[in-house]
Amino acid sequence: MIDLARVTKQFDGKRNVTALHEVSLSIDKGDVVSIVGPSGSGKSTMLNLMGGLDRPTAGVVRIDGDALDGLSDDSLTRVRRDKIGFIFQFFNLLPTLTCLENVGLPLHLRGWSRSKVHERASALLELVQLGHRTQHLPEELSGGERQRVAIARALSIYPPILLADEPTGNLDTRTGREILQLIDDLHERLGSTIVIVTHDPNVAARCHRTIALRDGRIEQDVRR
Amino acid sequence: MMLLRLISWPYFRKHIVRSLLTIAGIVLGVAVFVGMHTANQGVLFAFNSTVDRIAGKTELQVTAGETGFDEAVLESVQSASTVRVAVPVIEATVDSQIAGQGNLLVLGTDMTGDRSLRDYDLEDADEAIIDDPLVFLAQPDSIMLAKEFAEKNDLAVNDTVTLGTVLGPRAFTVRGIMRSSGLTSAFGGNLAIMDIYAAQHMFGRGRTFDRIDLATRDGASIEKAQEELRQLLGPGFQIDAPAGRGRQFEAMTASYSIMINISSLFALFIGMFIIYNSFAIAVTQRRSEIGILRALGATGGQVRGLFLLESAVTGLIGSLGGVLLGLVMARGIAASIGGVMKDVYGVAQRADEVATDPALLALSLIIGIGTSLVAAFIPARQAARVDPVQALQKGKYQVLSVGESRLRALAAAAFVITSILCLTAASSRVAFYVGYALAILAALLLGPLLAQWLGRALRPVLKWMRPVEGALAADSLIQTPRRTSASVAALMLSLALVTAFAGMARASYDSILDWTTTTLNPDLFVSPSPEIVSRTLRFPGPMGETLAALPGIARVQKVRNARILFNGAPVMIVAVEIGSVAEMAPSPPIEGDATEMYRLAAAGEGVMISDNLAKLHGLHAGQVLTIPAPHGLISLPIVGVVLDYSDQQGSILVDRTVYERYWRDDSINLFRVYLTPDASPADAKAAILQRFASERQVFVFTNRELRDYILRITDQWFGLTTVQIAVAVFVAILGIVNTLTVSIIDRRRELGVLKAVGGLRGQIRRTIWMEAVSIGTLGLILGFALGALNLYYILQIVEHDIAGMRLEYVFPVTTMVALVPTILAAAFVASLWPAESAVRGSLVEALEYE
Fold first, then answer.
1. B472 vs A104: CB contact, 8 Å cut-off?
2. What is the per-residue pLDDT across B575-596, written as a single tens digit (0 to 9) for each?
3. How does DSSP assign B405-449, residue by residue?
4. Which residues contact A96 (CB under 8 A, 6 or more apart)?
5. Which of A60, A186, B389, B537 has the fewest CB within 10 Å, making it most exposed?
6. Which residue of B has its CA nearest to A115?
7. Closest CB to A74 among B752, B756, B760
């Protein structure tokens, strides 16, 4: 499902920083994988490359066997739009849109009709137990509720791949547990491939596989 | 200064585009101010300079307005004990008949006496002329040219030069070329001298002079000479120093100068909003920086001082740029103003040199810096009040607080009420202008709130058009009133100005069209000049009878119009055969009885005056008007007030018999010709041209041509509106680029999310475009609303303080309809670059941006 072949990522600046060194790995369809490691180990960089948010300096990233390198900006966006759902640590909900509008955002961008968008977004909000919050703005929700909305948005296109960057990093322990439970439930129901970047060993322990990074290299790759 | 280097300079470098846009706001305001004032001054200077240069050693000039006077007056002046020398002068601006050279100013003088007033320093001439000017006199085709004109056209002594005269194009022999001097540089060097009697003949002056130039005897003061001449000549003459002509010219063109002043002040005001916008944005964006400074011990005063210093430096840089750009613009604007002066006011001058006035430039710098400081004052005060703790919290600072909104609404309501009271309860002009200023202030105070309300109203429409892009564009406007309101306000102000001027132009156009339809109904108009308003050439009175005898001509009306001084102001006296006008083209009176008015005026027992003269001088039917004329004071009752747009300063209509009696002048400026029912205008025109072809220069205009001509010069007068529209478009672009540049920085994360969840580049661009077009739409709606109010005030000012014209309130729908796509297109163009910068850059950085 996701293949990284000798992927290197360097950040240019006054001092060039290499975030990933010729990393190769493969993630199978339906897998739930966690990426762990200390700050600056390259976890988020790897997730961004898998999600087509960034491009590698060298090497190839493949999604469903298709290489992402050489794709135009819009083609890369289409890959994200059709295959990838993102969950961010800071939710990244649009503050001026209601929960329903936030969840329907990717569908509108795909050109879906208003009624279909409404139907799907409402169903997803029900799924994350926020059916009663459809017309609320993000600022009117708690942190856990916001992350639920973000998850509903990520799932709106029924993506085959779900990428989560510290999904519980900004939440208290109890709410974090609820969110992880929700992700597990959704995985069971939708069968998506899930990659979670986390600092939390408890989160990592819930996944089928854990990849540990250090200084931009894979230090450990544990399957359960 | 240290803070400026450490804090401001890095910010300037980081946001160089926005900083340049801020400077561009000042450049715009100062450039329009400098350009318009320099051009206007240049034209006035050119006129004054010509007057001064051709005056020579003249100490006083005797005139009777533009009408001229009988030759006999010269003897009276020469007999005055205080006068050393007095020489008659005829001054005419004639077509040089040389391509690209335009007009030539011809001075007709008496060479025998004139040399003691003007020094004709001949560089090259017939020896005989230098020795004896009588030789010059003996040859009526003689002319002397300024060296500048001769050199430009390769003319030498004994060459011939052809000039347009009332007798048609006539060849003159160059008898002398004057060395470069003050005199020869008058009228841009396009100067010629000819004998006074030849000039009388060539320019249709009959036995009259335009003026007498004189110098006083040693020991006689100017004031004493003036007093003696006043006693000697009576009240119909003006005895003034040459500079007095400049003052009259300024008075005559005052309304145009007022329009220019209003435009340039609006430009400065608009520039101020662009600066305010930039600084307000800078304060909100630099809150964390300000918070750190405050936390490190900077006082509120130091923070305020930093922002004010930044604004002063920005103002200085912008003002210097504005001065340079303004001076470049001035040349083009001067040509345009010069054209208006010549075509509308009939006064030719050559503003070849646009002089830079150091005082104006210094004033511009002060105004530019001052405007910048005033504009930055409120943002600087807000910066000084930033709470260090809240400063590091992002988000809410762009929102207007409920208290602030309420305060604005209350102040605006107070201003509106006072403004209405000023308009209805008070009758003084001061109260009117206070009301006007308060109405504009109220609109500016309400601008952000109205923009927010309108933004909310627009949201469903935009969302309906594009659910994501539209909603986000509207939200961007609604959530950040500080960011958008100044751009909208600047656009609103400039559109309000355009609306008012376009409305005034439309109303004037309609009124003039109505007037031409009612009163200008002759089939043909016969003029000695290609420009009908030019009064430099005249026909002799008896030509009317020759004209009337031509086949197909049913009736000829003789018109003589000239500016005279009335109550110290230049007004137009129009001498017509009132009985004939009453029969053929009666005007419904605004005051007075239609039948009686024409009967009394035709019998020489009364005068009719134009509505604008009545307004400007507070005159009414029944009052007795005292008009000073060369041959006595005319005291006649006003028998009617009628619409007449012959002159902006107003006109007095008298019967020709009155005019001939008191001015002893039977010359004609224009013949109004009515044809028999069976005659065709084309045939009659051809017959007239053929009849006079060998005798004199004649221009025949059909009714349609004359109307087109009048409407063309009306358009020319309002040509300034075009400059204002250009400023409005520029403001729209500048303000919107400024706002959007900040908008995409503020919305970087939002746009990043949009891309991350599948927004294509086109969709990102579209949301920026929609935001820009929405700002344009808000500006248009508020601009038209304020414009509707502004138009009312401007029409009142025109009626009471400028031209006395009672103009109907008509909203200029056509111009406004044309402005909608113009401003929206400008808004769209303004958004192209910000939209491109929004789709570029790192998506990862955008998502992490805080």
1. no
2. 999 999 999 988 889 999 989 9
3. HHHHHHHHHHHHHHHHHHHHT--SHHHHHHHHHHHHHHHHHHHHH
4. A137, B471, B472, B475, B476, B478, B479
5. B389
6. B467
7. B760
Q: Which of A43, A44, A48, A77 to mutate to test the interface with B (most CBs of B within 10 A)?
A: A77
Q: What secondary structure does DSSP assign to B355-375, as a single string?
A: ---HHHHHHHHHHHHHHHHHH
- Residues B6 and B65 reside in one and the same domain: no
B142 DSSP assignment: E
What's the rounded Cα separation, in Å, for the pair B179 and B118? 13
Chain B nearest-CA distance from A224, in A, is 31
The answer to whether A179 and A168 have CB atoms below 8 angstroms apart is yes
By the 8 A CB rule, do B481 and B399 touch?
Answer: yes
Structure tokens at A204: 């990592």
B471·A97 Cβ contact <8 A: yes
Reference B181, options B130, B136, B122; nearest CA is: B122
Q: Residues B503, B272: contact at Cβ < 8 Å?
A: no
pLDDT digits (tens, 9 = 90+) for A145-178: 898 899 889 888 888 899 998 888 877 888 788 8
Facing B475 at nearest CB: one of A53, A54, A96: A96
Instruction: Please tell me if residue A94 touches chain B, with a CB cutoff of 8 Å.
Output: yes
A82 contacts in B (CB within 8 Å)?
758
A118 touches chain B (CB under 8 A): no
Q: How far apart are CA B329 and CA B263, in angstroms?
A: 15
Q: Which of A72, A74, A87, A146 to mutate to test the interface with B (most CBs of B within 10 A)?
A: A74
How far apart, in whole angstroms, are the C-alpha atoms of residue B564 and residue B88? 19
| DSSP state letter for A192 | -
Nearest-angstrom CA–CA distance, B309 and B828? 34
Same domain? For B69 and B146 the reply is yes
Say if residue B714 is in the same domain as residue B792.
yes
B157 and B208 belong to one structural domain:
yes
Compute the nearest-CA separation of A221 from chain B (Å).
26
Neighbouring CB atoms inside 10 A of B433's CB total 15
Q: Are residues B267 and B189 in the same domain?
A: no
In this prediction, residue B246 has a pLDDT band, given cuts at 50, 70 and 90, of confident
Q: Does residue B548 share a domain with residue B505?
A: no
Of A82, A101, A117, the CB nearest to B471: A101
Residues B85 and B137 in one domain: yes
Measured between alpha carbons, how far is B235 from B685 in angstroms, rounded to an integer? 42
Complex ipTM, two decimals?
A: 0.84
Tokens of A36: 């762990």
Q: Name the burial class of residue A35, with classes exposed (0-12), middle (13-18) and buried (19+) by CB atoms within 10 angstroms of its CB.
A: buried
